[in-house]
From TrEMBL:
<keyword id="KW-0597">Phosphoprotein</keyword>
<dbReference type="InterPro" id="IPR042838">
    <property type="entry name" value="KIAA1958"/>
</dbReference>
<protein>
    <recommendedName>
        <fullName>ZMYM2-like/QRICH1 C-terminal domain-containing protein</fullName>
    </recommendedName>
</protein>
<keyword id="KW-0832">Ubl conjugation</keyword>
<dbReference type="Pfam" id="PF12012">
    <property type="entry name" value="DUF3504"/>
</dbReference>
<keyword id="KW-1017">Isopeptide bond</keyword>
<dbReference type="InterPro" id="IPR021893">
    <property type="entry name" value="ZMYM2-like_C"/>
</dbReference>
<feature type="domain" description="ZMYM2-like/QRICH1 C-terminal">
    <location>
        <begin position="1"/>
        <end position="119"/>
    </location>
</feature>
Amino acid sequence: MYEAKTLGADNPTALLHSMWLICSMHLGTWTGKETHSLQWGDISLQLDDSNQEYILYNTERQTKIRTGVNERNIRLAKPRAYAIPDIPQKDPVGLYKLYKNKRPADMNGPESPFFSQYKKTPMGINKLYGIMKKMMTDTGLPPTDKRIIPYR
């Protein structure tokens, strides 16, 4: 997917897809309602004790699975994604910084939607659901491949 430029920093769509993948894989957001309700202030850039940069998922909202009722379904640690400066195309921190710089300035408020279309409107839930299918199509994978289906 990086060679096909559907992931990485080569173009706005690839950057958006990369942020979606980082949120899904590294931060553990589900691809449906949880990703759609993600706000800019829910994810922040941090430094650990050894001065390594990472992005932190600060605010986890209740979902169908994590309702807050069952203590076993509450994460003990907040999800993090550490910088990988040696591989810029896959570096969560570098991509996050680039994504922040490309967003309209007034969309960087804590309650702004995390996923926008590089304009002042949030990305629709159906568009978020279709990201995996679009990435598969762009790389030549059959979009009906049942092994690669996002959660809804």
